[in-house]
Amino acid sequence: MKNVVITDRGPKPIGPYSQAIKANGFVYLSGQVALDPKTGEMAGTDIAQQTERVFENVKSILEAAGANLHHVVKTTVFLKDMNDFSAMNEVYARYFTAAPPARSTVQVSRLPKDALLEIEVIAAT
């Protein structure tokens, strides 16, 4: 059985997908970019600002699913430019201060709108 997770505190899906799906003790979040859920516009112009907005979106969606960042077991970070890794990682470390999840980070050639990164998350509930 799967349950769709939706919250106004996260960006509305811009296609045929859910913000997250809760199934079999896990929450699978769709990739999040730095869209401001109130305006629908990209928040921030640099990687640090965008990373922070992404994590605020992730936190809101996790909370709607009954979870939080401590439940995250895996993240995948898609960077537009691997040269942004250090600045992204600095913000990332503020959100995962103890027992950080497993992570993959890759550079991609294209992301939606003016996004500099996208992060997807899997959390255990």
Describe it for me?
The chain is an alpha+beta fold and 125 residues long. Helices cover 23% and strands 30% of the residues. The protein is built from 2 helices and 6 strands. Strands 1-2-3-6-4-5 form a 6-stranded mixed sheet, covered by helices on one side. The longest helix is centred in the middle third of the chain and has 18 residues, at 47-64. The protein starts with a strand and ends with a strand. The mean pLDDT is 97.
Helix content: 10-25%
Strand content: 25-35%
Largest sheet: 6 strands, mixed
The overall average pLDDT, rounded, is 97
The helix-and-strand class reads alpha+beta
Overall morphology: globular
Task: Compute the CA-based radius of gyration.
Answer: 13 Å
> What is the distance, rounded to the nearest whole angstrom, between the alpha carbons of the first and last residues?
15 Å
Strand order of the largest sheet: 1-2-3-6-4-5
Order of helices and strands: EEEHEHEE
Low-confidence stretches: none
Task: Tally the beta strands.
Answer: 6
Number of helices: 2
Please give a quick description of this structure.
The protein is α+β, with helices and mostly antiparallel strands and 125 residues long. Helix content is 23%, strand content 30%.
